[in-house]
Write a structure and sequence with these properties.
Blueprint: H1 2-11, E1 17-18, H2 28-39, E2 47-54, H3 62-76, E3 83-86, H4 89-92, E4 104-111, H5 115-130, E5 137-142, H6 144-178, H7 181-205, E6 211-212, H8 215-243, H9 248-257, H10 259-275, H11 283-304, H12 306-314, H13 324-337, H14 341-351, H15 353-368, E7 376-377, H16 389-400, E8 409-414, H17 420-434, E9 443-446, E10 452-457, H18 466-483, E11 490-494, H19 496-530, H20 534-559, H21 564-567, E12 575-576, H22 579-609, H23 612-642, H24 647-679, H25 710-717
Parallel strand pairs: 1-6, 7-12
Antiparallel strand pairs: 2-4, 2-5, 3-4, 8-10, 8-11, 9-10
Helix pairs in contact: 1-7, 5-6, 6-7, 6-8, 6-23, 7-8, 7-11, 8-9, 8-10, 8-11, 8-23, 10-11, 10-19, 10-22, 14-23, 14-24, 15-20, 15-24, 17-18, 18-19, 19-20, 19-22, 20-22, 20-24, 22-23, 22-24, 23-24
Length: about 725
C-alpha cells in the first residue's frame, strides 16, 4: 500500500486538486454561468490584469504607448494555448482601463482554458511582464490565476515550515516520554506512512471529485497529530508489558487487546465527528473532511498492522539508544515527590469541586465571549503576504482603478429582452447601478436568441473581501428586486463575489445540521461505551466549552488582533467561513478521544472497587502522563502549521492547538474530577429501559501477565 500510494502521489496528486471553490447544489451563480456559456457569443476564460504604471509620463505620450504596445505584442505571442487575447485602451478606447491621473493603464489578458489551466500557465505571463525593463515604468500582475498560484506556493511553503517546526518538537517530547531515541522515532515514521497512504487515496478520489488543494496541508497536519499519538499509545503499552515479564509476542498480543483496541475506538470517534462535514455541498468542506478521515483511518490501520509487525522485528531494540540521564532524573523525581502528581491534583480538585467548577467554567465562558462578535467570510486576496504578486498588484489596482475589476459581477437577466417591460427593467437596473457608489460603470449585451441580457459591472471593493460580498447581497436583495418588480424576468448574479455569498449561505445553512449530527452520534457512542446517560451529557457539555473557548480565542487573536503581532499572525476582518465548522468537527473528535481514554480507566476502577474518589484519582494517575505527552505533541504539530503565512491555516492551527491544550489541562484535569466527585455513583446512571444496550469496553479482557523472573527483577532494579 505504501509503494502504491507513493506512486500515486508522485504521478496523480498534483493534477487531482483544485484552487476553485465549487458548490454542488446548483446555486444561482452556477445557473447564471450556464446561461452565459450557452447563449452568449463571448470568449470564456480567466482574465488577468497587467498594470503598467509610469513615474512621470501619461498614457497620451508616445513613449507610454510604445511600451504598452510592445508588452501587448509579447503577451499575445504566447499563443492561443496560453492566451486568448490581450486588450488595450489604444485599441478599445475604454476609459475604465486608464487611471484617474492617466499615469497607469490596464491590459486585460484573457487566459485560455479554465481556472486550473490559467494557474498552470500564468507564470508565462509573469515572465513576459518581468522582462519589461523600460526606464520610468513599473509593471504589476494580479487576478484569480495569479492569486491561485500564490496560494499554492504559500501553502507548500507553509507545509514545509509546519513540518520543520512540529517534527523536532514532537521528537523531543517523544524522547522525554520514552527515554530512548529508537522508540521516539517509531511514531514519527508511522505517522509518515499514514500520511503517504492517505495522500495516495486522495489522489485517487481527486480523479472523480473536485478536492481543494488545502487537503494536502490538512492531511499532513492531522496525520502527524493522530499518527504520532496512536503510535505513542501502542508503543508505550508494549514497553509496559515487556517490563511486566511478557515475551515479545505475548506483549504484542496484550497490546492488541488493550491499547490497539483503544486506538481503534478513538479513531472511529474522530472519523464519526468528521463525517458530518461530507454532507455540505462544497468541495472545500468535502475535500478537507475526506483528507482528514483518510489520514485518521490510515493512522489507525498502520497502528493495528504495521506497528505490531515492526515491534515484533525490533523486540527490545525499541529501547535502543536510550538516554540514561532521563531515566535517572525520573527515578529521582519519583523518590522525592512521594504520591504521584496526578493523585495530588485529583484529590485537591475533589476537595473543593464546586469552587473548581465555577473558576474553570468561568474562565472558559470568558474565553468564549469574543465569539459573539465573530465575522465569517472569505480570506481576501489582499490578505496574502506583501511580497506576493497578488498583494502588490491588488494594492495598485485598488488605489488607481477599482478592486472589483479582478472579477466583476455579472448579472444575467433571463426573459424576453424584446418585451417593453423587460427592457424598462434592464434600464432601471443600469441606472441604479450607475447611481450606486459601490459599483463601477456597467456594460450591457444581449444573447443570440434574445432570451437573456448580461450586465457586467465591476465592484469598487475587492470581490473576495467582506465588502464585496455585502455589495452583492444588497444587489441581490434590494437593487435587482426593485428594478425587476414589474417585469417577467429573473436575474442571476455570477462572479467571485456572488460565488462567495453562495458559499457563506451554504455554510450558515448546514452549520446546525453538522452540529446536530456530530453531537447525536457522539452521544449515542458514549452512551453505549459507558452505559450511562450522565457521562455522555457531561462529555458533550465540556467539549462544547472547550470548542467555544477555542472559537473565542481565534476571534480575539485573528479578527480583533490581540497579540497577533507577538504570535506572528495577520489581523483580518473575517474568520474564514469554513473554519468554525471544521474546527468543531475536528476538535470534538480529538476531545472525545482523550475523554474516552480517561473515563474508561475511571469506569474500569469504579466497577472493581466502588470507590468514586479513588477511581477518579486512579484514572488520572494511569492516563495523566501519557495523555499530556500526546496533547503536547498535538499542540506542537498544530502550532507549527499555525506559524505559516496563510491566514486560514493560522486560524485552524491556532484554534486546534489551544483547544487541545484546554482539553488536556482544564477539562481533563479539573472539570472531569470535580464533576465526577459531585455526582458520585450517579455518574453511571442508566435507566432500566436502556439496559439492553450492548456493552463495549474500550480495553478488552486480557490474561494476567506472568510474574517476572528473578533475572527480570534484577534488570529492572538496575
Amino acid at each position: 500500500m505504501l509503494a502504491a500510494a507513493s506512486a500515486l502521489v508522485a504521478t496523480q496528486l498534483g493534477g487531482s486538486l483544485t484552487t476553485d471553490q465549487r458548490i454542488s447544489n446548483n446555486p444561482d451563480y452556477a445557473l447564471g454561468d450556464q446561461i452565459i456559456a450557452e447563449r452568449f457569443d463571448r470568449p470564456d476564460g480567466i482574465t488577468e490584469l497587467v498594470i503598467v504604471r509610469a513615474e512621470s509620463s501619461t498614457v497620451d505620450e508616445p513613449s507610454f504607448r510604445a511600451t504598452v504596445e510592445r508588452l501587448q505584442g509579447d503577451l499575445a505571442a504566447l499563443g492561443p494555448a496560453t492566451v486568448q487575447g490581450v486588450f488595450s485602451y489604444y485599441q478599445t478606447g475604454d476609459p475604465s482601463l486608464v487611471s484617474r491621473d492617466r499615469q497607469s493603464l490596464l491590459l486585460p489578458v484573457l487566459m485560455s482554458g479554465g481556472l486550473e489551466d490559467a494557474i498552470v500557465n500564468v507564470h508565462q505571463v509573469h515572465a513576459v511582464v518581468d522582462a519589461v525593463e523600460t526606464a520610468g515604468f513599473s509593471t504589476y500582475v494580479t487576478g484569480r490565476a495569479t492569486g491561485g498560484q500564490d496560494f499554492r506556493e504559500i501553502a507548500e511553503r507553509d507545509l514545509q515550515k509546519g513540518e520543520l517546526v512540529a517534527l523536532p518538537i514532537a521528537f523531543l517530547i517523544l524522547v522525554l516520554v520514552f527515554g530512548a531515541l529508537a522508540a521516539a522515532l517509531l511514531p514519527i515514521v508511522l505517522a509518515g506512512v499514514a500520511i503517504v497512504i492517505a495522500l495516495g487515496a486522495t489522489a485517487l478520489i481527486g480523479q472523480v471529485f473536485d478536492l481543494s488543494f488545502f487537503v494536502v496541508n490538512m492531511v499532513t497536519m492531522m496525520g502527524l497529530a493522530v499518527g504520532i499519538d496512536y503510535s505513542l499509545f501502542v508503543v508505550s503499552r508494549y514497553r509496559e508489558e515487556r517490563r511486566a515479564g511478557l515475551d515479545t509476542i505475548e506483549a504484542i498480543t496484550t497490546v492488541g487487546a488493550t491499547a490497539s483496541r483503544a486506538v481503534l475506538i478513538s479513531g472511529l470517534v474522530v472519523i464519526v465527528a468528521l463525517l458530518g462535514l461530507l454532507i455540505i455541498p462544497v468541495n472545500v468542506f468535502q475535500g478537507l473532511a475526506a483528507g482528514a478521515i483518510l489520514v485518521v483511518a490510515a493512522a489507525v490501520f498502520a497502528a493495528l498492522t504495521l506497528l505490531p509487525a515492526v515491534l515484533s522485528l525490533m523486540g527490545d531494540r525499541v529501547d535502543a539508544l536510550s538516554v540514561p540521564l532521563l531515566g535517572r532524573l525520573a527515578a529521582m523525581a519519583k523518590r522525592r515527590r512521594g504520591r504521584p502528581l496526578w493523585d495530588r491534583l485529583a484529590y485537591a480538585v475533589m476537595r473543593r469541586p464546586i469552587v473548581s467548577l465555577v473558576i474553570v467554567g468561568g474562565l472558559l465562558v470568558a474565553a468564549a465571549v469574543p465569539n459573539l462578535g465573530i465575522n465569517t467570510g472569505s480570506s481576501s486576496l489582499s490578505s496574502l503576504p506583501p511580497e506576493t504578486r497578488t498583494h502588490d498588484g491588488l494594492a495598485v489596482l485598488q488605489e488607481e482603478f477599482l478592486g472589483g475589476l479582478v472579477s466583476p459581477a455579472r448579472i444575467v437577466v433571463e426573459g424576453d429582452t424584446e418585451a417593453a417591460a423587460v427592457q424598462a427593467a434592464i434600464a432601471r437596473l443600469q441606472t441604479a447601478l450607475g447611481n450606486d457608489p459601490e459599483f463601477g460603470p456597467s456594460r450591457l449585451e444581449f444573447s443570440r436568441d434574445g432570451s437573456a441580457a448580461l450586465i457586467t459591472v465591476p465592484l469598487v471593493a475587492d470581490p473576495t473581501s467582506a465588502a464585496g460580498a455585502d455589495a452583492v447581497r444588497r444587489l441581490r436583495d434590494e437593487v435587482i428586486p426593485r428594478a425587476l418588480a414589474d417585469a417577467e424576468a429573473r436575474a442571476y448574479i455570477t462572479g467571485v463575489a456572488a460565488q462567495n455569498v453562495a458559499y457563506f449561505d451554504v455554510a450558515t445553512q448546514y452549520t446546525p445540521v453538522v452540529f446536530g449530527i456530530v453531537l447525536s452520534i457522539s452521544f449515542v457512542l458514549l452512551l453505549v461505551v459507558f452505559r450511562s446517560l450522565i457521562v455522555p451529557a457531561k462529555a458533550i457539555l465540556m467539549n462544547l466549552l472547550a470548542v467555544g473557548a477555542a472559537y473565542g480565542l481565534v476571534v480575539l487573536v485573528s479578527q480583533m488582533g490581540f497579540a497577533a503581532d507577538f504570535l506572528g499572525f495577520q489581523k483580518v476582518s473575517a474568520i474564514e467561513a469554513w473554519v468554525p465548522i471544521l474546527l468543531f468537527a475536528v476538535l470534538f473528535g480529538l476531545s472525545m478521544d482523550y475523554h474516552v481514554f480517561l473515563l474508561s480507566r475511571i469506569r474500569e476502577r469504579f466497577d472493581r472497587t466502588g470507590d468514586n474518589a479513588e477511581s477518579v484519582a486512579f484514572g488520572l494517575r494511569r492516563t495523566g502522563a501519557l495523555i499530556t505527552g500526546a496533547a503536547l505533541i498535538m499542540v506542537a504539530v498544530f502550532g507549527g502549521f499555525a506559524s505559516g503565512d496563510l491566514v486560514v491555516f493560522q486560524q485552524i492551527g491556532f484554534g486546534l492547538a489551544v483547544a487541545v491544550a484546554i482539553d488536556a489541562t482544564l477539562i481533563r484535569s479539573i472539570l472531569v474530577p470535580a464533576s465526577m466527585k459531585l455526582l458520585g455513583s450517579r455518574n453511571w446512571w442508566l435507566p432500566r429501559p436502556l439496559r439492553w444496550l450492548p456493552q463495549i469496553r474500550l480495553e478488552g479482557a486480557v490474561a494476567a501477565p506472568p510474574k517476572p523472573t528473578v533475572a527480570l527483577r534484577k534488570r529492572r532494579t538496575l
